[in-house]
Amino acid sequence: MNEAGQTRRPGSRFHDLLFSQEGVLLVILVLSVLLLSTRTDVFLTVDNLLNQGRLLTEIGLLALPMTYIIITGGIDLSVGSIFGLSAIMLGHSWQNWGLPLEYAIFVALLTGVLCGLVNGLFIVRVGVPPLIMTLATLALFRGMALGISQGRSARGYPDWFLELGAGEFLGVPNQLWILVLAAVIAAFILARTVFGRSLYAIGNNELGARFSGIPVGRNKLLIYTFSGLMAGLGGYIFVSRVTTTRSDMGTGHELDVIAAVVLGGTSIFGGTGSIAGTMIGVVLIQLLKNGLALTGVTGDATIVVIGTVLIFAILVNNYVQRRRSGESGAGAA
User: pTM surpassing 0.90?
Assistant: First the structure.
Protein backbone atom coordinates (compact mmCIF):
# COMPACT_ATOMS: atom_id res chain seq x y z
CA MET A 1 0.00 0.00 0.00
CA ASN A 2 1.16 3.55 -0.66
CA GLU A 3 0.93 6.55 1.67
CA ALA A 4 -2.66 7.21 0.57
CA GLY A 5 -3.69 3.69 1.61
CA GLN A 6 -4.02 2.48 -1.98
CA THR A 7 -2.66 -0.91 -3.01
CA ARG A 8 0.00 -0.75 -5.73
CA ARG A 9 -0.44 -3.07 -8.68
CA PRO A 10 2.27 -5.78 -8.90
CA GLY A 11 3.57 -4.43 -12.19
CA SER A 12 3.46 -0.75 -11.20
CA ARG A 13 7.07 -0.67 -9.97
CA PHE A 14 8.32 -2.10 -13.28
CA HIS A 15 6.01 0.29 -15.14
CA ASP A 16 7.44 3.28 -13.26
CA LEU A 17 11.00 2.14 -13.94
CA LEU A 18 10.40 1.51 -17.62
CA PHE A 19 8.72 4.84 -18.16
CA SER A 20 11.24 6.84 -16.16
CA GLN A 21 13.71 9.09 -17.97
CA GLU A 22 16.52 6.63 -17.30
CA GLY A 23 14.37 3.68 -18.44
CA VAL A 24 13.44 5.30 -21.73
CA LEU A 25 17.06 6.23 -22.40
CA LEU A 26 18.25 2.72 -21.54
CA VAL A 27 15.79 1.28 -24.07
CA ILE A 28 17.14 3.69 -26.70
CA LEU A 29 20.69 2.64 -25.81
CA VAL A 30 19.90 -1.08 -26.15
CA LEU A 31 18.14 -0.57 -29.48
CA SER A 32 21.04 1.53 -30.79
CA VAL A 33 23.58 -1.11 -29.73
CA LEU A 34 21.58 -3.91 -31.36
CA LEU A 35 21.20 -1.93 -34.58
CA LEU A 36 24.88 -1.00 -34.79
CA SER A 37 25.94 -4.57 -33.99
CA THR A 38 24.16 -5.76 -37.13
CA ARG A 39 26.25 -3.39 -39.25
CA THR A 40 29.71 -4.56 -38.20
CA ASP A 41 31.16 -7.57 -36.39
CA VAL A 42 33.75 -5.47 -34.56
CA PHE A 43 31.35 -3.24 -32.63
CA LEU A 44 29.98 -5.68 -30.07
CA THR A 45 33.30 -7.23 -29.05
CA VAL A 46 34.75 -7.07 -25.55
CA ASP A 47 37.95 -5.38 -26.72
CA ASN A 48 36.08 -2.66 -28.57
CA LEU A 49 33.64 -1.98 -25.74
CA LEU A 50 36.44 -1.78 -23.16
CA ASN A 51 38.35 0.58 -25.42
CA GLN A 52 35.26 2.81 -25.69
CA GLY A 53 35.11 2.77 -21.89
CA ARG A 54 38.67 4.06 -21.88
CA LEU A 55 37.79 6.83 -24.33
CA LEU A 56 34.63 8.05 -22.58
CA THR A 57 36.16 8.39 -19.11
CA GLU A 58 37.15 12.06 -19.41
CA ILE A 59 33.72 13.13 -20.68
CA GLY A 60 32.09 11.03 -17.97
CA LEU A 61 34.11 12.71 -15.23
CA LEU A 62 33.19 16.16 -16.54
CA ALA A 63 29.54 15.16 -16.79
CA LEU A 64 29.21 14.33 -13.07
CA PRO A 65 29.54 17.90 -11.74
CA MET A 66 27.78 19.25 -14.84
CA THR A 67 24.74 17.24 -13.75
CA TYR A 68 24.82 18.98 -10.37
CA ILE A 69 25.22 22.38 -12.01
CA ILE A 70 22.41 21.97 -14.53
CA ILE A 71 20.09 20.61 -11.83
CA THR A 72 20.51 23.95 -10.05
CA GLY A 73 19.62 25.78 -13.25
CA GLY A 74 23.22 26.74 -14.05
CA ILE A 75 25.70 25.89 -16.79
CA ASP A 76 29.48 25.60 -17.15
CA LEU A 77 30.77 26.23 -20.64
CA SER A 78 34.38 26.48 -19.49
CA VAL A 79 35.00 22.83 -18.55
CA GLY A 80 36.78 22.07 -21.82
CA SER A 81 39.10 25.05 -21.38
CA ILE A 82 39.82 24.17 -17.74
CA PHE A 83 40.54 20.62 -18.92
CA GLY A 84 43.07 21.93 -21.46
CA LEU A 85 44.67 24.47 -19.10
CA SER A 86 45.11 21.81 -16.40
CA ALA A 87 46.79 19.48 -18.90
CA ILE A 88 49.11 22.27 -20.05
CA MET A 89 50.02 23.16 -16.47
CA LEU A 90 50.91 19.53 -15.79
CA GLY A 91 53.38 19.36 -18.66
CA HIS A 92 54.68 22.93 -18.22
CA SER A 93 55.36 22.66 -14.49
CA TRP A 94 57.18 19.36 -15.08
CA GLN A 95 59.31 20.27 -18.09
CA ASN A 96 59.76 24.03 -17.66
CA TRP A 97 59.59 24.55 -13.91
CA GLY A 98 61.48 21.35 -13.14
CA LEU A 99 58.93 20.08 -10.61
CA PRO A 100 58.80 16.36 -9.88
CA LEU A 101 56.02 14.79 -11.90
CA GLU A 102 54.05 13.95 -8.73
CA TYR A 103 53.96 17.66 -7.86
CA ALA A 104 53.08 18.53 -11.46
CA ILE A 105 49.99 16.30 -11.18
CA PHE A 106 49.01 18.22 -8.04
CA VAL A 107 49.51 21.50 -9.94
CA ALA A 108 47.11 20.26 -12.64
CA LEU A 109 44.44 19.37 -10.08
CA LEU A 110 44.97 22.65 -8.22
CA THR A 111 44.64 24.56 -11.50
CA GLY A 112 41.26 22.95 -12.10
CA VAL A 113 40.09 23.73 -8.56
CA LEU A 114 41.15 27.39 -8.79
CA CYS A 115 39.49 27.85 -12.19
CA GLY A 116 36.25 26.35 -10.88
CA LEU A 117 36.49 28.49 -7.76
CA VAL A 118 36.86 31.64 -9.88
CA ASN A 119 33.72 30.72 -11.80
CA GLY A 120 31.83 30.07 -8.59
CA LEU A 121 32.95 33.26 -6.86
CA PHE A 122 31.90 35.51 -9.73
CA ILE A 123 28.58 33.70 -10.12
CA VAL A 124 27.77 33.69 -6.38
CA ARG A 125 29.44 36.83 -5.03
CA VAL A 126 29.30 39.17 -8.01
CA GLY A 127 26.06 37.85 -9.46
CA VAL A 128 27.29 37.22 -13.00
CA PRO A 129 24.91 34.79 -14.79
CA PRO A 130 26.55 31.35 -15.20
CA LEU A 131 26.14 31.41 -18.99
CA ILE A 132 27.96 34.75 -19.31
CA MET A 133 30.63 33.99 -16.73
CA THR A 134 31.60 30.58 -18.05
CA LEU A 135 31.46 31.78 -21.65
CA ALA A 136 34.00 34.44 -20.71
CA THR A 137 36.26 32.00 -18.86
CA LEU A 138 35.96 29.54 -21.76
CA ALA A 139 37.93 32.08 -23.81
CA LEU A 140 40.11 33.23 -20.90
CA PHE A 141 41.34 29.80 -19.82
CA ARG A 142 41.87 28.67 -23.41
CA GLY A 143 43.92 31.80 -24.07
CA MET A 144 45.97 31.14 -20.95
CA ALA A 145 46.67 27.59 -22.16
CA LEU A 146 47.84 28.90 -25.52
CA GLY A 147 50.00 31.59 -23.91
CA ILE A 148 51.66 29.27 -21.40
CA SER A 149 52.37 26.49 -23.89
CA GLN A 150 53.43 28.78 -26.74
CA GLY A 151 52.16 26.08 -29.08
CA ARG A 152 54.69 23.55 -27.78
CA SER A 153 53.81 20.10 -26.46
CA ALA A 154 55.30 18.22 -23.52
CA ARG A 155 56.38 14.62 -24.12
CA GLY A 156 58.60 11.92 -22.67
CA TYR A 157 56.58 10.97 -19.62
CA PRO A 158 57.82 7.94 -17.62
CA ASP A 159 56.07 4.59 -17.82
CA TRP A 160 54.53 4.80 -14.33
CA PHE A 161 52.73 8.00 -15.33
CA LEU A 162 51.32 6.42 -18.49
CA GLU A 163 50.01 3.39 -16.60
CA LEU A 164 46.84 5.21 -15.51
CA GLY A 165 45.79 6.01 -19.06
CA ALA A 166 46.97 2.87 -20.81
CA GLY A 167 46.99 0.18 -18.12
CA GLU A 168 44.33 -2.25 -16.91
CA PHE A 169 43.19 -3.81 -13.65
CA LEU A 170 41.33 -7.14 -13.80
CA GLY A 171 41.05 -6.65 -17.56
CA VAL A 172 39.26 -3.31 -17.23
CA PRO A 173 40.94 0.04 -18.11
CA ASN A 174 42.28 1.80 -15.02
CA GLN A 175 40.50 5.07 -15.67
CA LEU A 176 37.16 3.29 -16.07
CA TRP A 177 37.43 2.11 -12.45
CA ILE A 178 37.91 5.74 -11.43
CA LEU A 179 34.84 6.82 -13.40
CA VAL A 180 32.67 4.07 -11.92
CA LEU A 181 33.75 4.92 -8.38
CA ALA A 182 33.24 8.65 -8.95
CA ALA A 183 29.81 8.03 -10.48
CA VAL A 184 28.68 5.85 -7.56
CA ILE A 185 29.79 8.49 -5.03
CA ALA A 186 28.22 11.34 -7.03
CA ALA A 187 24.95 9.40 -7.39
CA PHE A 188 24.84 8.65 -3.66
CA ILE A 189 25.45 12.29 -2.76
CA LEU A 190 22.78 13.51 -5.15
CA ALA A 191 20.10 10.99 -4.21
CA ARG A 192 20.77 10.23 -0.54
CA THR A 193 22.16 13.34 1.16
CA VAL A 194 20.80 16.68 2.32
CA PHE A 195 23.27 18.42 0.03
CA GLY A 196 21.97 16.52 -3.00
CA ARG A 197 18.34 17.27 -2.19
CA SER A 198 19.24 20.94 -1.73
CA LEU A 199 20.47 21.07 -5.35
CA TYR A 200 17.03 19.97 -6.56
CA ALA A 201 15.43 22.59 -4.32
CA ILE A 202 17.68 25.32 -5.75
CA GLY A 203 16.82 24.29 -9.30
CA ASN A 204 13.09 24.21 -8.64
CA ASN A 205 12.88 27.49 -6.74
CA GLU A 206 16.08 29.28 -5.75
CA LEU A 207 14.31 32.02 -3.81
CA GLY A 208 12.23 29.48 -1.92
CA ALA A 209 15.40 27.51 -1.16
CA ARG A 210 16.99 30.62 0.34
CA PHE A 211 13.96 31.26 2.54
CA SER A 212 14.08 27.60 3.61
CA GLY A 213 17.55 28.12 5.05
CA ILE A 214 19.48 26.31 2.31
CA PRO A 215 22.97 27.84 1.84
CA VAL A 216 22.44 28.45 -1.87
CA GLY A 217 25.61 30.46 -2.42
CA ARG A 218 27.86 27.98 -0.63
CA ASN A 219 26.37 25.01 -2.46
CA LYS A 220 26.78 26.68 -5.84
CA LEU A 221 30.37 27.55 -5.01
CA LEU A 222 31.03 23.92 -4.11
CA ILE A 223 29.62 22.47 -7.32
CA TYR A 224 31.49 24.88 -9.62
CA THR A 225 34.71 24.14 -7.72
CA PHE A 226 33.93 20.43 -8.02
CA SER A 227 33.51 20.94 -11.76
CA GLY A 228 36.98 22.46 -11.93
CA LEU A 229 38.46 19.57 -9.92
CA MET A 230 36.95 16.97 -12.26
CA ALA A 231 38.22 18.92 -15.26
CA GLY A 232 41.71 18.89 -13.75
CA LEU A 233 41.48 15.16 -13.07
CA GLY A 234 40.18 14.56 -16.59
CA GLY A 235 43.09 16.55 -18.03
CA TYR A 236 45.59 14.46 -16.04
CA ILE A 237 44.02 11.18 -17.19
CA PHE A 238 43.90 12.39 -20.79
CA VAL A 239 47.61 13.30 -20.79
CA SER A 240 48.39 9.89 -19.33
CA ARG A 241 46.40 8.25 -22.13
CA VAL A 242 47.70 10.20 -25.14
CA THR A 243 51.27 10.64 -23.73
CA THR A 244 51.53 14.32 -24.66
CA THR A 245 50.06 17.74 -23.91
CA ARG A 246 48.64 20.22 -26.42
CA SER A 247 46.98 23.57 -25.85
CA ASP A 248 43.88 22.51 -27.81
CA MET A 249 43.10 19.62 -25.47
CA GLY A 250 39.48 19.62 -24.37
CA THR A 251 38.22 21.77 -27.23
CA GLY A 252 34.52 21.05 -27.71
CA HIS A 253 34.30 18.88 -24.59
CA GLU A 254 31.75 21.24 -23.05
CA LEU A 255 29.29 20.47 -25.86
CA ASP A 256 29.69 16.70 -25.51
CA VAL A 257 29.28 16.94 -21.74
CA ILE A 258 26.17 19.11 -21.85
CA ALA A 259 24.66 16.91 -24.57
CA ALA A 260 25.22 13.79 -22.44
CA VAL A 261 23.69 15.39 -19.34
CA VAL A 262 20.63 16.70 -21.20
CA LEU A 263 20.28 13.42 -23.08
CA GLY A 264 20.29 11.69 -19.69
CA GLY A 265 17.12 13.53 -18.70
CA THR A 266 18.50 16.45 -16.70
CA SER A 267 16.33 19.48 -17.40
CA ILE A 268 18.22 22.51 -18.69
CA PHE A 269 15.76 24.60 -16.64
CA GLY A 270 16.85 22.85 -13.44
CA GLY A 271 15.13 20.82 -10.78
CA THR A 272 15.34 17.33 -12.30
CA GLY A 273 18.08 14.90 -13.29
CA SER A 274 20.16 11.95 -12.12
CA ILE A 275 23.68 10.61 -12.34
CA ALA A 276 22.39 7.30 -13.73
CA GLY A 277 20.73 9.09 -16.63
CA THR A 278 23.86 11.12 -17.30
CA MET A 279 26.06 8.00 -17.40
CA ILE A 280 23.69 6.32 -19.85
CA GLY A 281 23.84 9.48 -21.97
CA VAL A 282 27.66 9.43 -21.93
CA VAL A 283 27.75 5.77 -22.97
CA LEU A 284 25.13 6.26 -25.68
CA ILE A 285 26.96 9.15 -27.33
CA GLN A 286 30.32 7.34 -27.24
CA LEU A 287 28.89 4.10 -28.65
CA LEU A 288 27.07 6.00 -31.39
CA LYS A 289 30.31 7.73 -32.39
CA ASN A 290 32.18 4.43 -32.41
CA GLY A 291 29.48 2.40 -34.14
CA LEU A 292 28.95 4.99 -36.86
CA ALA A 293 32.71 5.28 -37.45
CA LEU A 294 33.02 1.49 -37.79
CA THR A 295 30.22 1.46 -40.36
CA GLY A 296 31.91 4.18 -42.42
CA VAL A 297 29.80 7.12 -41.23
CA THR A 298 32.11 9.96 -40.19
CA GLY A 299 32.32 13.72 -39.92
CA ASP A 300 29.17 15.80 -40.30
CA ALA A 301 26.95 12.75 -40.77
CA THR A 302 27.89 11.50 -37.28
CA ILE A 303 26.94 14.85 -35.77
CA VAL A 304 23.60 14.75 -37.59
CA VAL A 305 22.81 11.25 -36.30
CA ILE A 306 23.77 12.06 -32.70
CA GLY A 307 21.78 15.30 -32.86
CA THR A 308 18.76 13.40 -34.18
CA VAL A 309 19.00 10.85 -31.36
CA LEU A 310 19.32 13.68 -28.83
CA ILE A 311 16.18 15.40 -30.14
CA PHE A 312 14.28 12.11 -30.25
CA ALA A 313 15.28 11.22 -26.68
CA ILE A 314 14.22 14.66 -25.42
CA LEU A 315 10.85 14.39 -27.17
CA VAL A 316 10.24 10.92 -25.76
CA ASN A 317 11.24 12.05 -22.28
CA ASN A 318 8.90 15.05 -22.48
CA TYR A 319 6.05 12.78 -23.60
CA VAL A 320 6.71 10.32 -20.79
CA GLN A 321 6.85 13.09 -18.19
CA ARG A 322 3.58 14.59 -19.41
CA ARG A 323 1.97 11.14 -19.29
CA ARG A 324 3.23 10.47 -15.77
CA SER A 325 2.07 13.93 -14.63
CA GLY A 326 -1.35 13.20 -16.10
CA GLU A 327 -1.52 9.84 -14.32
CA SER A 328 -0.48 11.47 -11.04
CA GLY A 329 -3.14 14.13 -11.47
CA ALA A 330 -5.78 11.52 -12.23
CA GLY A 331 -4.74 9.46 -9.22
CA ALA A 332 -4.92 12.50 -6.96
CA ALA A 333 -8.39 13.31 -8.27
Answer: no
